[in-house]
Write a structure and sequence with these properties.
The chain is α+β, with helices and mostly antiparallel strands and 341 residues long. The protein folds into two domains: 3-129, PAS domain (Beta-Lactamase, 2-Layer Sandwich); 134-337, Histidine kinase-like ATPase, C-terminal domain (Heat Shock Protein 90), CATH 3.30.565. Helix content is 45%, strand content 24%. The protein has ten helices and ten strands. The chain has helices spanning 3-23, 44-49, 53-58, 62-66, 74-85, 131-168, 172-194, 204-214, 237-253, 303-317, and strands at 27-32, 38-41, 90-98, 102-114, 120-129, 222-225, 263-272, 278-287, 320-326, 329-337. The strands form two sheets. The protein has a five-stranded antiparallel sheet, with helices on both faces. A five-stranded mixed sheet has the order 6-7-8-10-9, covered by helices on one side. A hairpin with a 5-residue loop joins strand 4 and strand 5. Helix 9 (237-253) packs antiparallel against helix 10. Its EC number is 2.7.13.3. It catalyses: ATP + protein L-histidine = ADP + protein N-phospho-L-histidine. It is an enzyme of class 2 (transferase). Residues 13-88 form the PAS domain.
């Protein structure tokens, strides 16, 4: 091959390489293996690192680039450079500080470039912005941990419900429907949770309406009074939902809604405790038209629902509760802490 043809092919090769580098969304770079000075840097550097790649080429020393990396990650980069100088490939993940004030994750593949004698004369690299992948992996780990936590809680709740339902059931025929109803209440909570977006929480009115609809509770005999969108702590939902389920069950089977003239009023509002803790205060009031309509105390005493409200809610949720049978009905109050975020 004559000299002019060789030079032309060399120029064409150089042009193709630069076009390739300019089109790449990853950062492509080449350093001298002896001096470690930067010889080539692709324009993708501008977007990922937040600075002009030409300014980096103007100060090509390795330390100019190292300064962009978080101090605790710099040793990995030095070790990788050493490996590539010895003819090995190296993959490193490190963090950089972006000028806009945020940390970004880089995944950098480094490899040796050899001369005809097999000597490492240059170090090539491909820098990939792995920030979104890292953040997605972190979110996945949080979701897995939350799922494991909720699953453990769910199993504990299911076990407690089964044991309590078994104790209060005289026969298997009594146990089956009661246990199924309570499991469905738990399932409704998880249905609400499954529809949430990241960082969102179930609101009290959503939880309440889901339970009332399941019992067919609606119409003129039911008064609902309170703000919408009061978000509850996710850790409170299962126990709170079971308490609402038991209240609604008792109201329709034995309480005010088991008669044609009874009334149910549910009121709620937000407030603060003495120490500033935000809380939701709920009042559940059932009223019969006449005291004679109210069932005997043993029938409408509350059973498992009352036990949940008076014992489980205060213990598990740090709630303040009361459950009082009155001459013409029932008054139940529940105050639970709200999330602060």
């Amino acid at each position: 091959m004559d000299r002019p043809v060789g030079q032309r092919k060399l120029r064409e090769s150089d042009t193709r390489f630069r076009q390739f580098g300019e089109a790449s969304s990853d950062v492509l770079w080449i350093r001298n293996a002896d001096t470690l000075e930067l010889e080539y840097l692709s324009p993708a550097f501008d977007h990922i690192y937040g600075m002009d790649h030409r300014s980096m080429l103007a100060r090509p020393a390795l330390e100019s680039w190292i300064e962009l990396i978080l101090p605790e990650d710099r040793h990995m980069v030095h070790e990788a450079i050493g490996k590539v100088r010895n003819g090995q490939r190296a993959l490193t993940e490190y963090r950089i500080w972006h000028p806009e004030g945020r940390v970004r994750w880089m995944r950098n593949t480094k490899f040796p470039l050899l001369d005809d004698d097999g000597k490492v004369v240059r170090i090539g690299g491909i820098g990939h912005d792995a920030t979104e992948e890292k953040e997605a992996a972190d979110r996945l780990q949080v979701l897995i941990a939350e799922l494991q936590h909720r699953t453990r809680n769910l199993m504990a709740v299911v076990q407690a419900v089964s044991e309590r339902t078994l104790r209060e059931s005289a026969t298997l025929a009594e146990f089956g429907p009661a246990y199924s109803d309570r499991l469905r209440a738990i399932a409704r909570v998880h249905g609400l949770l499954s529809r949430l977006t990241d960082g969102d929480k179930v609101s009290f009115d959503e939880l309440l309406m889901e339970e009332l609809r399941a019992h067919g509770v609606n119409g003129e005999r039911v008064l609902l009074d309170g703000p919408s969108g009061v978000r509850l702590r996710s850790t409170t939902l299962q126990t709170y939902a079971l308490a609402l389920h038991e209240l609604a069950t008792n109201a329709t089977k034995y309480g005010a809604l088991s008669t044609d003239s009874g009334r149910l009023a549910i009121r709620w509002r937000t407030a603060s405790r003495e120490d500033g803790t935000p809380v939701l205060q709920m009042e559940w009031r059932e009223q019969f038209e006449t005291p004679s309509e109210r069932p005997a105390d043993g029938v409408h005493s509350g059973g498992y629902g009352r036990e949940l409200i008076e014992r489980a809610l205060p213990y598990q949720l740090k709630a303040r509760t009361s459950y009082r049978l009155e001459p013409n009905g029932l008054l139940c109050t529940v105050e639970v802490p709200l999330p602060t975020d």
